Amino acid sequence: MTISRxxxxxxTVSLALxxxxxxxxxxxxxxxxxxxxxxxxxxxxxxxxxxxxxELRRIFSGEKHSWxxxxxxxxxxxxxxxxxxxxxLARVLRISESEYKAHWIKQIxxxxxQHEPLVLVSNGMQLEAVRAEKGGIxxxxxxxxxxxxxxxxxxxxxxxxxxYPLK
Amino acid sequence: MFRFxxxxxxxxxxxxxxxxxxxxxxNQQETIQALRQEINELKARVAAxxxxxxxxxxxxxxxxxxxxxxxxxxxxxxxxxxxGIKLQxxxxxxxxxSDANPPDLGASLGFRPGSAGxxxxxxIDLFLTSQFSLRTSVLSEVVFSEQSSxxxxxxxxxxxxxxxxxxxxxxxFGRFHTATSYYNSVFHHGLWLQTAADRPLVxxxxxxxxxxxxxxxxxxxxxxxxxxxxxxxxxxEYGSAATIRPxxxxxxxxxxxxxxxxxITAGVFLQPDWLPGLDVGGSFYHDHINPEGSNLHIAQAxxxxxxxxxxxxxEFLNEAFLIQHKIEETGQTFNTPAFYTLISRKLGAQWRPxxxxxxxxxxxxxxxxxxxxxxxxxxxxxxxxxxxxxAIKAQYDRTFRRDxxxxxxxxxxxxxxx
Lengths: 167, 418
What we know:
The complex is a heterodimer of chains A (167) and B (418). Chain A has helices spanning 2-34, 53-60, 83-93, 97-109, 123-132; strands spanning 38-42, 50-51, 74-78, 118-120, 136-141, 150-154. Chain A has 167 residues and is of the alpha/beta class. Chain A has two domains: 7-34, no CATH class; 37-154, 3-Layer(aba) Sandwich (D-Maltodextrin-Binding Protein, domain 2), CATH 3.40.190.10. Chain B has 418 residues and is mainly β. Chain B folds into two domains: 2-59; 83-417, Porin (Beta Barrel). Chain B has a 16-stranded antiparallel barrel with strand order 1-3-4-5-6-7-8-11-12-13-14-15-16-17-18-19. The radius of gyration of chain B is 30 Å and the shape is globular. The relative contact order of chain B is 0.11. Classes of the chains: A alpha/beta (167), B mainly beta (418).
């Protein structure tokens, strides 16, 4: 009986070992297809808990300059070619890189905005900037999040939920 | 059987981990790049901290007389804040061929009336901005404008001290482009910014023959009204306009100086969250004018409405105007209706064909627009964006005029920013 059970346990372990890399491959292929989830972070002093896609679009297109209460918004973006920049352009603003540049030239030229969002070359710098600026806001890959910032719901959905829009 | 399964499992595990490690060398390279970047930043910070510490230690070793504390004078700038002047330029070179007879100045810049075709530089636009704080800045637009004589005139088109306390109130003081039209508020002198090679006549700058008072000096107040996702905005302007316009069908005739009184403009517009790119609104402008040589006092009222949809691929501009002049001495009223519509669609990444139709109908005997009359017609063109800085445009216009022969214009334009 004992002899007969031992191969059974080992078979189960072996099957799990067989499935584990297969699952890892599946997850990895999913990540390659969609990329890691991107979250919206603000300074912990900011009282808002949730933001709509419309507000995000108006912030990063320079149409909205202040948080409720009057605090000036300081928006930060990543450099071209990064996951955060791709999500910002494709999901939030729905424009191409060259259209983004042209939009900001028009925005500043018309006097609507004083400057475009500051471009930062790493997520570490983004974290530091949002921690330093009370009105700071930036998009960051969930895997690079560290303490000291607040993550916002987007359209009422938390990162990780099926309806979360910034995937 | 058991040994076989273990071996197969181990092989799959190794294959999986190997696949994971070799999955995306580009990602790994990017990660390494990002880590190197962070290391460099941290090294720089450590060096700065060490330098500061060394300085503190050095100053601590040498006893010095007591100095007054000056900590209040050190106010850290916001992250990424840069003082100084930022300069941006816009320019263009345009070739225009026209068969207008008699010569027609139209809405073109720097062209010789009567010439079958010639090149012109048009406007050279220097745009300067400077930030004092997150909420205070200066904006200036200086234009060197080519006249039909070939000479250049310098004009301070805009000079604004801007203060933005919040989204509900943004204030500007100085010389500004009036909110008499959407076009005048959004498109300024850089031809690179607009799709077509020229502006519709009604919204052309007044010193180039346009019909609206395009500039004023005073205060401008704009902001968002509490309206949720509807995105309702307002604009209020009070200032002094100084409109001087050439006569477009008689380029050699003296310019008409309107001697405007102080003007007031009020407008509202919707920019709803649920349809980004949609802008619907209108404005009302009022002042009194006394056109030079006419001895008439005229109340001028300009109403405008616009419906615009503009996204990354599609542009649809529609604007209509009613310019009303009421002579105070006689009570006689002259109405000038006008509109333009422009539709364009981006094809691929670089091409944008467009079509425009414009209409202006100044009343016969108008004391302010004696040169305009009825004129309308289509324009068709294509814009090619060679890169982020240079656009090439080709445009054909046909213009029908009351009591005057129709005419055709062909324009080729190189518009750029620098």
